[in-house]
Every structure is written in structure tokens, then in C-alpha cells.
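Usage example:
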Amino acid sequence: MIWIGAEPPQAASQREALLDRAFGPARFAKTAERLREGRLPAEELSFAALESTAHGDMLVGTLRFWHVRLGEHCDGLLLGPVAVGEPWRGTGLGGRIIRRGLATARALGHRAVILVGDAPYYQRFGFSAAPASRLILPGPVDRHRFLALELSPGAMATAEGPVRASGEPVDRRRAA
Ligand SMILES: CC(C)(COP(=O)(O)OP(=O)(O)OC[C@H]1O[C@@H](n2cnc3c(N)ncnc32)[C@H](O)[C@@H]1OP(=O)(O)O)[C@@H](O)C(=O)NCCC(=O)NCCS
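Running the assembly step on the lines above writes:
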């Protein structure tokens, strides 16, 4: 049985291995990575899909969110990376982990989510290009793949200008 919950600290290396398999080394060259590098993910918004095995829990899916500033007047979250292990793809697991993530984000009071990804996949969760149309990412992007979702209606009405990382820097917590 696969269950979805908060990512346990000991699952970090399994998560990195899954992301390496899913995206290859190019994952660190993505424009979205410019909003993640050197930052901690948003609190309570790192998810793992875990399958219990005789050798312990095996991570078969991952999803994290990151704090971003959407122009001067709007805060949001960046969704991703999301990945499901190849043998489990097409079983609904990607949808389960994304819906769980979005529901938790909404319950925590977050109002807007952006991502870079395939519109034919993400539109089923309510994402579209329109709310992100006045935002500028810190690197090249195909505008058809730059998508957003207002968790609260009208939340992105003032979302205009550069998108910047606003998560806690990694070093600050290490030093604490
Ligand atoms: C994208 C991913 C997380 C989806 O997880 P999943 O468990 O396979 O997804 P689900 O089972 O919930 O949904 C499967 C459906 O999504 C569709 N789908 C999956 N990836 C898609 C894509 N990139 N574009 C359009 N549709 C896609 C499937 O065709 C299937 O459609 P159906 O419901 O009509 O049969 C998974 O395929 C994955 O890890 N891919 C590699 C990493 C990746 O590309 N991550 C997303 C980066 S933007």
C-alpha cells in the first residue's frame, strides 16, 4: 500500500535519487531551479509517497513547494519538482500527491501557486497560463508552460513583475 505524508528526514537521499532518475542532470539547469537553489522548501509542504516493504519504507513519489514573491505585492508558492517512480506512473499517484499538496497549501492559508510544466497535465488541477501572464521568471521559459493557480479567487490580481525566491536561505537554519 502506498501512503502520502510529510517527507521524513531520512527519505531525502531517496528523493534526490528519484529526481535524478526522473529528470537527469538537466534538472539543475531549469529556470525553476533558480527559485529553489539555496532555499529551504516551504514548511509543511514537502510530501513523499511511501510504499511499505520488508526492507522499510520506499519513496516512490515526491512533491515540494517553495516560497516565492510574485512581483511587488503578491506572495505565492512554486510547485515542484514533482515526480513518481517509473513503475508507479499512470496509477493516479501523481494526481494524489499534487491534490494533497494543493489542499494542504490552501489549508495553511497560501493563496497562489505557480509552476513550469506541461499544461495538458496540470490543467486538470486548475492551472492555466493566464494568471501568470504578467510575471517574469529569472530565466528562459516557454510561456505556455508557465502556469498558475489561484487558491483564493483574485489572489493574483496584483501579480506583475519579476518572480523572486523568498524562502528561508539554507544557511540561516544551519547556523541557528
Ligand atoms: C508527471 C508525473 C508526476 C505524473 O504522475 P503519474 O502518477 O503518472 O500521474 P497520474 O497517474 O496521476 O496521471 C496520469 C495521467 O496524466 C497524463 N500525463 C502524465 N504526464 C503527462 C504530461 N507530461 N503531459 C500530459 N499528460 C500527462 C497521463 O497520460 C495520464 O492521463 P490519463 O489520466 O488521461 O490516462 C509522472 O509522470 C512523472 O514523474 N514524470 C517524470 C517527471 C516529470 O515529468 N515531472 C513533472 C515535471 S513538470
